[in-house]
Amino acid sequence: MRWFWVDRFTEYVAGSHARGVKGVTLSDEFIHGHWDIYPVLPNSLIAEGMAQTAGLLVSEMYGFKELVVLAKFTKLTFNTAVRPSETLEYHATIGRALDAGAQCTVTATARGVGGEREQAVAEIFFARLATGADSDAAAKGLPARLFDPADLVRWLHVTGVFQVGVRQDGSRMQPADYGLPVLV
Fold it and tell me: How many distinct structural domains can be found in the chain?
């Protein structure tokens, strides 16, 4: 993945919920072409940040071993524009988890000089595609994983998942728990 719309995680409880943060600055190239005079973070990129926060939570629920893809936004509303110098906090919570996938509720809260406000609310369904030699995914030529395990574990370290991530019993998450390589 080339574009990351979550800078770091401030809270991560496996199988339950996560909080991710994205800072918006004038040096972000993508905000200048959206509206010429009024640079804002495009709503489509905010939706992507919401999906990345929730998708990581769902992927972890399946031990990072399943192919999990965004299937649909069942609800998505935006309330305000996000300007440079503001910070977005994404809060994702797993709702229903089924064999076919999981539904998450995600809110995006904008914080800046003007205070704090709810920027967006989404309900997102992530499909869990069966993998392995006998699966439909394998027959269709889909990869077993979206990320190389080493790339995934680097991203999890950089965004702070292993620094703040805990299981529901309070014990720390570790890359080795998921069969991921350990960075030294």
Answer: 1
Is 34 among the residues known to form the active site? yes
CB neighbourhood size of 133 (10 A): 7
Domain around 117: 8-175
Query: How many of the other CB atoms lie within 10 Å of CB of 79?
Result: 11
More confident call, 63 vs 143? 63
Instruction: Note the pLDDT tens digit of each residue in 76-124.
Output: 999 999 999 999 999 999 999 988 999 999 999 999 988 999 999 999 9
What average pLDDT does the chain have?
88
Residue positions counted in the chain: 184
Which residue of the set 17, 32, 34, 157 is catalytic?
Answer: 34
Helices (H) and strands (E) in the chain, counts: 4, 7
Indicate the SS3 state at residue 44.
Answer: helix
The reply to whether 3 falls in a domain is no
Tell me the CATH number at 106. Answer: 3.10.129.10
